UniProtKB/TrEMBL annotation:
Protein name (database record): Urea ABC transporter ATP-binding protein UrtD
GO molecular function terms listed in the Swiss-Prot or TrEMBL record: ATP binding
Domain (ABC transporter): residue spans on this chain: 53-296
Source domain of life: Bacteria
Alphabetized UniProt keyword annotations: ATP-binding, Nucleotide-binding, Transport
Length: 296
């Protein structure tokens, strides 16, 4: 894509967001207006049908260009799903829709079987149990690893009231559990700014885990990590699978291979919709996929 085109698209996105924010040209979402509904309390999400996330026919246009084009996708409860696709396939836009950052022009998005994500604001979506990890680590560099986790606990309303007194035994246990899980137990008192890139990524994942999200969205989590860090990250995600649903957007095929263990479903996005879905080996052998992505 030429720089001019990229600039046009960036401008279009700003205009698109501004239009939606002002309500001008507001479009219908899945046949309903995109007004905000009541917030469902965390815990009231209904996963009894086994589906954690359901995207149906989602379209997002930026000035006529369809970043998502009738995208439909479903993630099961406890599933670890890797999403791959070339640059510009729509992966980030998809995460933006799920987290309420971008409103689609059409389609439906639900969390569990009861919660309409298109009716919730970004902060409400975070509160009902959808956590997002951006590519770049964002931790409080001046604070220790422990303090970062403690602060993340404070972001959880249920914990906030008691945090300003003393951490309860239960909260200390939770921090201990998470710090062990993210391989930072021996670094608990270390200033976060002194951690390696990979350790910062784990810390941020730990901070998300403090809020016990039901669904975790992870955008290129191993970019910039060493091989050893990448391997440990795979182990971490595999240990979270089952208790959380995970959607991992990644370009690193070795990592995707580790995560999918030769049997899990991988989704390939291209031009804003699903191009192929299946086991990694199968999608890698798929001619359409080779043409648009892997063969390059
Ligand atoms: N703000 C925007 N305005 C216009 N077009 C945009 C905007 N944001 C994204 N796009 C376009 O939508 C398409 C999908 O972008 P998106 O960032 O979702 O892709 P991606 O799969 O995440 O790519 P990458 O792997 O490079 O991160 C791209 O063609 C991109 O240029």
């Amino acid at each position: 894509m030429t720089p001019d085109l990229m600039e046009d698209r960036a401008l279009a996105r700003v205009e698109h967001d501004a239009r939606l924010a002002s309500g001008v040209g507001k479009t219908e979402s899945g046949g309903r207006s995109a007004s905000y509904g009541r917030l469902h309390r965390a815990g009231s999400v209904d996963f009894t049908h086994g589906v954690a996330l359901y995207l149906d026919d989602i379209t997002v246009s930026f000035d006529g260009f369809k970043a998502l084009n009738s995208l439909s996708l479903s993630i099961n409860v406890g599933e670890l799903r890797c999403i791959i696709g070339p640059n510009g396939a729509g992966k980030t836009t998809m995460m933006d829709v799920i987290t309420g950052k971008t409103r689609p022009d059409a389609g439906r998005a639900s969390f569990g079987s009861t919660i309409d994500l298109l009716r919730l604001r970004e902060n409400e979506i975070a509160q009902i149990g959808i956590g997002r990890k951006f590519q770049k680590p964002t931790v409080y560099e001046e604070l220790s690893v422990f303090e970062n986790l403690e602060l993340a606990l404070a972001a959880d309303r249920r914990a906030r009231a008691s945090l300003f007194h003393r951490l309860s035994g239960e909260q200390l246990d939770r921090i201990g559990e998470v710090i062990t899980l993210i391989h930072l137990k021996t670094e608990a008192q270390r200033t976060a700014g002194l951690l390696s890139h990979g350790q910062k990524q784990w810390l941020e994942i730990g901070m998300l885990l403090m809020q016990d999200p039901k669904l975790l969205l992870l955008d290129e989590p191993v970019a910039g990590m060493t091989d050893e860090e990448t391997e440990r990250t795979a182990e971490l995600f595999l240990s979270l699978e089952g208790q959380h649903s995970l959607v991992v957007v990644e370009h690193d095929m070795k990592f995707v291979d580790q995560l999918t263990e030769g049997r899990k479903t991988v989704t390939v996005l291209h031009e804003g919709s699903v191009l192929a879905e299946g086991k990694l080996a199968d999608v890698q052998a798929n001619e359409k996929v080779v043409e648009v992505y892997l063969g390059r």
